[in-house]
Amino acid sequence: MSEAIRDLLYKMADDELILGHRNSEWTGLGPMLEEDIAFSSMAQDKVGQSLAFFELLHSLGEAEPDTVAFTRNANQFHNCQFVELPIGEYDFSLVRHFLFDNADYLRFSHLKDSAYTPLSDLAKKFMGEVKYHLMHGEIWMKKLANGNEESLTRLQKSLDYAFPFALGIFEKSEFEDQLITDGIYNGEEFLKNLWLEKIQNQISKTPLQLDTSVEAVFGGRKGMHTEHLQPLLDEMSEVFKVDPGADW
Amino acid sequence: MIITEEKILHWLEEVKDPEIPVLSLIDLGVITGVDIVDSHVKVSMTPTFAGCPAIDYMKKDVIRVLHEKGIENVEVEVSFKSQWNSNMITDKGRKALEEFGLAPPPRHDFIIDIDILQHVKCPYCRSEDTEVKSPFGPTLCRSIHYCNGCKQAFEQFKPI
């Protein structure tokens, strides 16, 4: 049981940490001031959420949050590959944010009823935070999809590229059946179906086209990553590694 | 000295949110419990946002203030066991926010959408002819708005 819970917590913690780091790369570079602030704020939320997950893991016997965040190699991370992809141009970051945060919101809304109380406590809290991410993503998707030919073409291209990776969010773990039986949650397939319905509904309000029959990119949950993750980890942990014992 | 919960809560009025110095932790609603066993005082707190960097300062301030009041044995537990939401800000806190120039969050029934951020009353001129500019602001708990009445940008402590 506890191994299954740890696996579930690690994948959520790693998703939030890695996407939080990616979002923070927009700080100072956003296409306009409000977007700079939005991506920076969402980064802060996500890193905060990852910290709460790492603290829960620490209470279950795992190492300190900083140690876990800054000293593992890429193959020890359980995030989906989607979150580690470089920020690219704003259209890709926006599409990723829209697809991921919808999944995140549905996940937390569902986990608030988890039989595992420490997790349901966090989910209740994070739902309110991610709600604002959701609002932000949906407004901009609608705005830019209905903008001009360039904005629509860019979004479509990013959506086509992002979607197989987004399906990878829902890669099942070996503990899936046990977690479902124990009432921890209803599993990835359940969440994926809720998400597909939500995304299709949102996309249908825009001129964007979505082909949901594409094959998902899996592997991240099992430690298989793209060439982009290790450089991100090296950069993220650079300061920590100068003096790992330092008290900040 | 007899330590009571009321006394502790009264003293904690002195601890302010470092980012909104007019708001005490009591008014903010982040103190979720006080347990007194003999001379040992345990204060339970919960962050406004998981990523709020002010929580460590608040925690240290709680310990500092209670030490100053002569309580040696203080423990502060930060957890998500009860989750903060903006309805927990007191009426006194809402008034303080408004005077500080931050629109207080509307009380809500947990259905938060973009509409709740529109037409927020301007804390400067009280006009409701305002629009939301961004659901994200200079800190995690604030959104950015513009008032068509007095033609000024303002911020709101956002409903969550």
Question: Could you walk me through the main structural features you see in this protein, from its secondary elements to its overall organization?
Answer:
The complex is a heterodimer of chains A (248) and B (160). By secondary structure, chain A is mainly α. Chain A has one domain (2-242): Up-down Bundle (Ferritin), CATH 1.20.1260.10. Chain A contains eleven helices and no strands. Chain A has helices at residues 2-24, 33-59, 65-71, 81-84, 90-111, 117-145, 149-167, 176-181, 188-203, 229-236, 238-242. In chain A, helix 5 (90-111) runs antiparallel to helix 6, helix 5 crosses helix 7 (149-167) and helix 5 crosses helix 9. Chain A is globular. Chain A starts with a helix and ends in a 6-residue tail after the last helix. The mean pLDDT of chain A is 96. Chain B is α/β, with parallel strands linked by helices and 160 residues long. Chain B has helices at 5-11, 25-28, 55-68, 91-100, 114-117; strands spanning 16-17, 20-24, 31-37, 40-45, 73-78, 102-103, 130-134, 142-147, 152-157. A four-stranded mixed β-sheet of chain B has the order 6-9-8-7. Chain B contains five helices and nine strands, in the order H-E-E-H-E-E-H-E-H-E-H-E-E-E. The termini of chain B are far apart. In chain B, strand 4, helix 3 (55-68) and strand 5 (73-78) form a beta-alpha-beta unit. Helices cover 24% and strands 28% of the residues of chain B. Chain B folds into two domains: 5-84, Fe-S cluster assembly (FSCA) (GMP Synthetase, Chain A, domain 3); 101-157, no CATH class. The A-B interface holds A 34, 37-38, 40-42, 44-49, 51-52, 121-122, 124-126, 128-129, 131-132, 135-136, 139 and B 47, 49-53, 79-81, 83-85, 112-114, 133-138, 140, 144, 158, 160.
